[in-house]
Write a structure and sequence with these properties.
- The structure is a single chain.
- By secondary structure, the protein is mainly beta.
- The strands form three sheets. A six-stranded mixed beta sheet has the order 3-11-10-5-8-7.
- The chain is elongated and about 60 Å long.
Amino acid sequence: MNKIYLSLISFCALGVVLLMSNAGGPASNGNRATGAPGDGSNTCVSCHNSGNSFGSVSIDLTMTDANGNVKSEYIADSVYEVKVTVTEGMGSPAGYGFSMICLDADDNNYNGWSDPSSNAQLSTSSSRNYVEHDGISSSNEFTVDWTAPSASKGDVSFYIGANAVNGASGNNGDNAALKDFTFTETEAEEPNSIDEIDQNRFVVYPNPTNGILTIESKINTDFVIFNSQGQLVAKYYSNSGQIDLGNLPSGFYMIMDAETRLSQKVYKL
């Protein structure tokens, strides 16, 4: 009888340790929780869906390009911002968590993640790449940059497990959900004339770029280029032409119209 009690106590203790470690991100602690093919059956829902405090949890994903346009398709080698929003059905959670993986059309892991928001982190589990919460987040929004795969890769899918939690030890009272989003590959379109330039008055392409960047504007103006630390690295004057970024390190840069202060984000490969 005592052996049975000891076994139960040991099992419960192990469960509490696992739940507490997952507060820092499941994949970062060797666990996978997205429900994606190959991730196994232990998900956010299997651990954090024992209560009814926060109702039905919903998950939304939006993907925006360098110009801030929401996209339902992706262009090969382009950089997008992916935002995950976790919303409770009722109540007031103490915080939120999530874990997300990207798989290609053959269900193979694809690692395109970079630059997660301050409440998120990049993690690896069983050679698979995730972006997930970094501790219980007071915000229900998480963002990360994602570089699309090379051409002819086809559909990609983002699998997400997310929860709304009460912050107590264990998982009683928490609610969770699983959802996946699929994006189809499409071809890049370059403007055919200056009249097709959008309301931002200028366009830059290709994005990302190996070094040569084309810029087109409706007016002659100064364009200034800042690195990710906000440092001025180049200046350009004209309404059309090419900028050579080949001497700059790989990373994100901001191209700004000096007159209107409108800007666009560019990734240098």
